[in-house]
Specification:
Strand order of the largest sheet: 1-4-5-6-7-10-11-12
Strand content: 25-35%
CATH architecture: Alpha-Beta Barrel
Structural class: alpha/beta
CATH class: Alpha Beta
Shape: globular
Number of helices: 10
Radius of gyration: 17 Å
Oligomer: single chain
Distance between the termini: 15 Å
Number of domains: 1
Helix content: 25-40%
Number of strands: 12
Order of helices and strands: EEEHEHEHEHHEEEHEHEHEHH
CATH topology: TIM Barrel
CATH superfamily: Aldolase class I
């Protein structure tokens, strides 16, 4: 049986780690390389770095950041933000990234997922889906860092993404993001049961019990969190000890 992964996420704006609530009200959380190195030493299984305001002009900045991360971090890490071509991914992987995350560009051009998986392997391609539960009871896909709603349901887009070659789904509930009230159980469970690739749950982790719940109730492969780690509310070693004591398999 595969061990469950704990993944700190570092949202990056202008070279700094930031964190907000429901995708707004951002506050500074420190240097991403220092934080990433600390989490690796504490026993994080992987890291995710997302340039949340990435533009073409900042591409070189992101490559340089990846190079710095690779020098200081000895665990796998995923990089996302503004990726729209095979050349973008090639530059990031050449400088030390292990996987890349695509979101808006992949939604607008699903062929990008296919091209990336053919070039680098599907295990390298993480499809990030930002989704929000609306009044009609359906979860819809949001783009551009959660600023633009689409008419497409997250369930449908996730299935399409896997068909195009995505090797993993990073599912973020915008309703739960930054609230520390627990992960989105229902939509995560649906994804786990209906997709053939690993799923990472994101949004809402605030207590150790929330991690226990998402693993036990959905069977999800990994749980991602940000501010609870950035602001020292929960330590990764303590979280792993807690999960082990509740019979959830995690790496030491």
């Amino acid at each position: 049986m595969l061990t469950k992964r704990i993944i700190p996420c570092l949202d990056i704006k202008d070279g700094r780690t930031v964190k907000g609530t429901n995708f707004v009200d951002l506050r500074d959380a420190g240097d991403p390389v220092e934080l990433g190195s600390l989490y690796a030493k504490q026993g994080a299984d992987e890291l995710v770095f997302l340039d949340i305001t990435a533009t073409v002009e900042k591409r070189k900045t992101l490559v340089e950041l990846v190079r710095r991360i690779a020098r200081h971090v000895n665990i796998p890490f995923t990089v996302g933000g503004g990726i729209s071509s095979v050349a973008d991914v090639n530059a990031l992987l050449e400088n030390g990234a292990d996987k890349i995350s695509v979101n808006t560009a992949a939604f607008k051009n699903p062929g990008l997922i296919t091209a990336l998986s053919k070039e680098f392997g599907s295990q390298c391609v993480v499809l990030a889906i930002d989704t929000k539960l609306e009044d009609d009871g359906e979860w819809y896909v949001y783009l551009n860092g959660g600023r633009k709603k689409t008419a497409i349901k997250a369930k449908d887009w996730a299935k399409q993404g896997v068909m195009h070659g995505a090797g993993e789904i990073l599912l973020t509930s915008m309703n739960h993001d930054g609230t520390k009230q627990g992960f989105a159980i229902d939509i995560t469970k649906y994804m786990v049961e209906n997709l053939s690739v690993p799923v990472i749950a994101s949004g809402g982790g605030g207590k150790m019990e929330h991690f226990k719940d998402i693993f036990e109730k959905t069977g999800v492969d990994a749980a991602l969190a940000a501010s609870i780690f950035h602001f020292n509310e929960i330590s990764i070693p303590d979280l792993k000890d807690y999960l082990k004591s509740n019979n959830i398999l995690v790496r030491k």
